[in-house]
Amino acid sequence: MLPLKTDEAFMFYAHDAVLRHLSIRELRKQISRKAYERKEIANSQLTELSAVPFNIFKDPYLLDVLGLKDNYLEADLEKAILADIEAFILEFGHGFTFADRQKRMTMDGEDFTLDLLFFHRGLKRLIAIELKLGKFKPAYMGQMKFYLNWLNRYERQDGENPPIGLILCTEASRDQIELMELDKEGIAVAEYWTQLPLKSEFEQKISEIYKEAQERLERRKSLISNKVLREIEYFYEAKDDDDY
Predict the structure, then answer these.
(1) Percent of the chain having pLDDT more than 70?
(2) Packing angle, helices 24-32 and 35-43, rounded to 10
(3) Residues 121, 68: Cα–Cα separation, whole Å
(4) Helix axes 199-236, 35-43, angle to 10 degrees
């Protein structure tokens, strides 16, 4: 038996196992690494108006398999990903295909470079990935939006959907990201961990982040409900020119 607490988690892992032809050992590894919870944490940042599809990203990503040590640079992270692209894609999920690294984009004689470019076969769209050290900064939004607009204009082919972007940081404020409504621009943000804590600490930390994600969803539902109630009350509120 697989150690799963909900039907939703069971269906997620069953679907993932079929899509990726996972062995029992690989499936148990995905469960132990809380793939379902991390997918739900990423989904909690998305709204009904999101340009980022649900169930496509995770948060955080576990890149401990890359073997990075302390004091690594962004270039080291990129090299490690390219050296073990199979492990990287396995962590990301089904459908990702590597397309390019250091993708050069030229505009008005100036060159810009995107760290990694993938294509998702199921979604039929390009996926831009930027790697950042340290905390997420709001300025990253403008940079990624430029990349996505450029890709949409110059790289998107007939039959493809608009590109989306993922900004990977070592630390991110999920409340700040929700406030900025990045998902409406087709941008997602996720943390990545290059080293895992002990199993008990890892499970506790993911549980805490997962609980925060659920609270964030409930808070959002509450705000929507309150807004609807205010609109209903306003509609039925007596006006000066009402006839009685």
Answers:
(1) 90
(2) 50
(3) 29
(4) 30
CB atoms within 10 A of CB 1: 3
pLDDT at 64 over 80: yes
Which element (helix H / strand E) includes 209? helix 199-236
Structure tokens given for 176: 């700040």
Q: Output the CA angle 105-168-196, nearest 5 degrees.
A: 145
- Rounded alpha-carbon distances, angstroms, from residue 57 to 12, 39, 107, 164, 229: 13, 6, 29, 11, 33
Whether the pLDDT of residue 167 is over 70: the answer is yes
Which residues partner with 135 through β-bridges? Answer: 171
How many whole angstroms separate alpha carbon 12 and alpha carbon 37? 10
User: CB pairs under 8 A, 24+ apart, for 140-144?
Assistant: 140/167, 140/169, 140/189, 141/180, 141/182, 141/185, 141/187, 144/187
CA 31 to chain centre: 19
Whether the CB-CB separation of 118 and 97 falls below 8 Å is answered with yes
Answer yes or no: are the C-beta atoms of 41 and 178 closer than 8 Å.
Answer: no
Task: Determine the Cα–Cα distance for residues 77 and 135; give it in Å rounded to an integer.
Answer: 16
Query: Could you write out the DSSP letters of every residue in 103-172?
Result: EEEEETTEEEEEEEEEEETTTTEEEEEEE-SSB--THHHHHHHHHHHHHHHHTPPTTPPPPEEEEEESB-
Instruction: Write down how long the chain is.
Output: 244
Q: 75 by DSSP, 3-state: which? A: helix
Instruction: Report if pTM > 0.70.
Output: yes
CA-to-CA distance for 89 and 19, rounded, in angstroms?
A: 14
